[in-house]
Amino acid sequence: MIGVVSYLVFFTTVAAILAIAVLGLNLQWGNTGLFNGGVVAFFGAGAYGTLILGGTPQPDHLGGFELPYLLALLGGMAAAGALAWGVGVLTLRLRHDYLAIATFGVAVAFENLMRNAEALGGGAKGLRGFERPLREALGSGFLYNLAFLAFVLVCLVLVWRSLDRLVASPFGRLLRAIREDETAARSLGKSPARIRLTAFVTGSVIMGLSGGLYATFYAFVSPQDVLPVLTFQIWAMLIVGGAGNTRGAVMGAFLIWAAWTASGWGLSRFAPVEAQLYTGSIQYVLIGLVIVGMLLWRPQGLFPERLVVSQSGREGARSTQGERQ
Amino acid sequence: MAEPILVTEGLTRDFGAFRAVDSVSISIARGTITGLIGPNGAGKSTLFNMITGALAPSAGRVRLAGTDITAAPPDRLFASGLGRSFQIPRPFARMSVLENVMLAPTGQTGERIWGPFLSRRAVAAQERAIRDRAMEVLAFMTLDGLADHPAGKISGGQMKLLELARVLMGDPQVILLDEPAAGVNPTLTGTLIERIETLNAGGKTFVIIEHDMDFIMRHCDPVIALAEGRVVFEGSAAEAQASPVLREAYLGVMADG
Questions:
Q1: How many distinct structural domains can be found in chain A?
Q2: What domain range includes position A24?
Q3: Which CATH class is domain B4-91+170-256?
Q4: Where are the domains of chain B?
Q5: pLDDT tens digits, residue range A289-318?
Q6: What is the value of pTM for the model shown?
Q7: Of residues A4, A87, A95, the one with CA closest to residue A39
Q8: Residues 194-213 of A with CB under 8 A from B
Q9: How far is the C-alpha of B38 from the C-alpha of B250, rounded, in Å?
């Protein structure tokens, strides 16, 4: 029994951490229409940043600043934000698929940098020497994991509620207008470049928070944690849940993470021995199928974006047609 | 003639070896509804795009109420009092009609990312004021019944009314309309014309591009005609109707093309 509960705590922690990253992507893609194909770079910047700033001194790589944990986490988020700002200034003139390709390239470059720059991130061996916060007070067992889950959930709820407030505000309206038609928005006095950059950096800082929490959870990060597949998983979560809807983003994260875990378990349990070698690849194919299938049959996701209407609290009049003359 | 509010001086635009607009100097008087006509390829849209900052002129200047606005970015022009519509309407499709209109006012406190967190009260108060004003404007444009509909699902004519509604939120002095009557049913065109005339009586200046000679002759005065990138006629609607030059230039080219 304790095994099941313990597993559920583990599962929920990872799913909630990923949900934070999906919320960041939702701000960029769902609200602003920015196609970030390199989610994992900003996630990774948060993860590496947090561990480098908060870890103990190590002989063979950068780090050991031993900052208090929350400061290290904020530092990781700032690293993700700084990376996003640099990438954003260079690429935000690009649209849609071009922006996706450019950001995908950034993510691949990030992974390779971390794999090869041993003095920076420990190379392929990854970053070690990070002590999880409050370890002495809470021990390293079930209680610790429960407390950490609580912390992750607090972060998730804070991010979720803040984004809901942001999206309901005139700022959110501005993001949607830029997503819908940049030329029209400009003709109404809005400056898309600045707003796109703000949304891109903010979304990436949120991804950095997710990465920082992820690295804290494992007290370790290596180039294996920043592979492109994570970008696709996070995208699948958003597409399945519903772009433009924060609840959809969070639900999508839990659903896809459950499906991913279950498919991994199922394949290892039931697939023939000869296929065992390929379970990883089969999972990649499955995640691709989920993305394509959703885009074909339910592109708006399980929880579609709601229309903002004049009386708050009323359901969106999404399906009703305007009177045609 | 009343004081000019929008002036172009020698405005020229080349596309490679092709001169789309050739040294156009026009002067729009404050409080008029000026019609801009010309056959396809006469340079109307290019001229429009240069005035609205979408396209940089190869030569020449544009002045709005005495201020040089040559090649100013479109997002600055709205704040300086120039509003425009598009030939093919550009609604924010997956936003409600009301949201489309509420977006328009410039300098909203809540448009800054910290606004909704740090100045919550101020933003809420501003939102109420903007919402009330938006509903008034929508009612004026006969769109209030559609406030909660997705803007991408209203008719093409209603989209043209919506574009004018959005522009009105910025209270511009000059409004440029690009083919407001094209592809719109007569009832909605009638509504649009009535509203334009009401606004004009209230002091707003309009510049209207139209293909439809009949529309221009009935609702615009004065009239400016372009052909092959040059101004071929400038005068009152009555003069336009009597002008052999205009008939020949405009209808002649029309007959050719």
A1: 1
A2: 2-297
A3: alpha beta
A4: 4-91+170-256, 92-153
A5: 988 999 999 999 999 999 887 655 444 444
A6: 0.91
A7: A87
A8: 198, 202
A9: 6
